[in-house]
C-alpha cells in the first residue's frame, strides 16, 4: 500500500537535504504533489495483469500475434529517474487470444514500478505464459534511460534493447525470423 504521508515527509527531508527552503511558495505543495505523482507512476505495485490476461476469446489455429510500438514510461530502480521507450510483444496463441489493449495494460502494470529493463521484459513474457498459456512468447523492449543521459556517463541517444523468448519462440528459429519480418527489420 502506497503511504502518501511517508512520501511527503521523505520529500520534505530531501528538499532540506539539498539546502532548499521548503516553505517558499514554489515548493510548499511539492511534497504533496510528488506523493500524488508516485501514487500514479508506481500504481503497478498494487496490480497484477491476471484480470486482463484471464479474459480470452477462442480462435481456431491462429498464427502469430504481434503488438508493436507500445510506448511506456518506467522508473529506473537505481536512480528513480525515468526510462522510456517501446515494447513489442508477440505470442503464438493456443486456441485463445486476449483483447489487444490487454497486452498494453500488461506493460503498464510492470512499467509502473521501480524497475530494471531486463526484469520488465522478463515479467511481461512470463505473465503471458502464465495467464494466457500460449504456445510461445517473444518480448522486445527498447528504451532510453535518463540516468545515462542527464547525469553520470551522459550518453544521450543510447538505446538499450532487451529480448526474451519463451516456449516455441525459444526453440524455433523460424518463429524468431517471422518476428523480425513482422517488425519490419
Ligand atoms: N542492467 C540495468 N542497469 C540499469 C538499468 N537502469 C539503470 N541501470 C544502471 O545501473 C547502474 C548502477 O550503477 P552504480 O555504479 O551502482 O551507480 P552509479 O555510480 O550512479 O553509476 P553511473 O550511472 O555509472 O554513474 C548504472 O550502470 C546504470 O546505468 C536497467 O534497467 N538495467
Ligand atoms: Zn538509473
TrEMBL record:
It comes from the Bacteria. This is GTP cyclohydrolase I FolE. Its EC number is 3.5.4.16. It comes from Petralouisia muris. The keyword Hydrolase applies. Keywords: Hydrolase.
